[in-house]
Amino acid sequence: MGLFQEKKDYLNCLKSSGHQSEKCRLFSKKYLECRMEKNLMAKQEMSELGFEKISEMDASGEKPNEKINN
Questions:
Q1: What stretch or stretches form a coiled coil here (predicted)?
Q2: Contact 7, 24 (CB under 8 A)
Q3: Residue range 26-43, pLDDT digits in tens
Q4: pTM of the full structure
């Protein structure tokens, strides 16, 4: 995917979530990784950008053990 698509996905997520950025962390991470790959920003460890726990969350921003089971 190109940078434009990554940015679009992130912005669409923000819009659909009522601008709750924590629900769009996966899209934010992908967007920043794409920017680094294209040398549009300095390469950094994702943990330095606040993504050390992103693997514990799904795309909705909820931790798996916090989901409500009906």
A1: none
A2: no
A3: 999 999 999 999 999 999
A4: 0.68
